[in-house]
Design a protein that fits this description.
Alpha-Beta Plaits; 2 domains; five-stranded antiparallel β-sheet; four-stranded antiparallel β-sheet; 4 helices
Length: 168
């Protein structure tokens, strides 16, 4: 089986229950959602759902066909890797016991993140970048005591003149 990871951008009606119907489609058919983000678009009538999933070619095609059948899905677009621009946000509470505040702040700055002191030796670290860079940064933070992590799903657009509206 030749599994591939894909990023799907869905333009959906912006009203109650749409996200539930989309995620139920995935769970009822046993498809995995690796990452999911949703938010209102520049047009308040629509929301964009960005889903990262994986499967072989047949499964990916089936996912797209099944999503397209949902009444509230107005367009679905697979963003090719060559056009993909995706960002994710991570917030990490970190306890730093063996490094001075100045040293820790330099460490965070070198890694292109931001940190905010919560209390003595406890910091909130924030980073917005690509998923792989966030994974690598979390690995680096493991030298400290990670207290809590919250990550968004990837938010993505195609680096092209084409929009999801063109796919309607």
């Amino acid at each position: 089986m030749n599994q591939k990871r894909v990023v799907l951008s869905l333009l959906v009606s912006n009203h109650f229950g749409v996200l539930t119907r989309v995620t139920n489609l995935f769970s009822s058919r046993g498809y995995n959602i690796i990452s999911l983000s949703v938010g209102e678009t520049e047009n308040p009538k629509f929301s964009r759902i960005t889903i990262v999933t994986s499967g072989d070619e047949a499964i990916i095609n089936q996912i797209k066909l099944q999503c397209a059948k949902l009444e509230d899905v107005k367009a679905i677009h697979e963003i090719k890797d060559s056009e993909l621009y995706m960002r994710e946000v991570v917030l990490v509470k970190v306890k730093v016991s063996y490094m001075s505040e100045d040293e820790f702040m330099r460490f965070v700055e070198v890694n292109e993140a931001d940190a905010y002191r919560i209390e003595d030796q406890l910091y909130m670290v924030e980073m917005c970048t690509g998923t792989q860079a966030i994974d690598a940064f979390i690995d680096k933070l493991e030298m400290f005591e990670i207290v809590e992590i919250a990550r968004t799903g990837g938010c993505a657009l195609a680096m092209s003149a084409t929009t999801v509206y063109d796919k309607q």
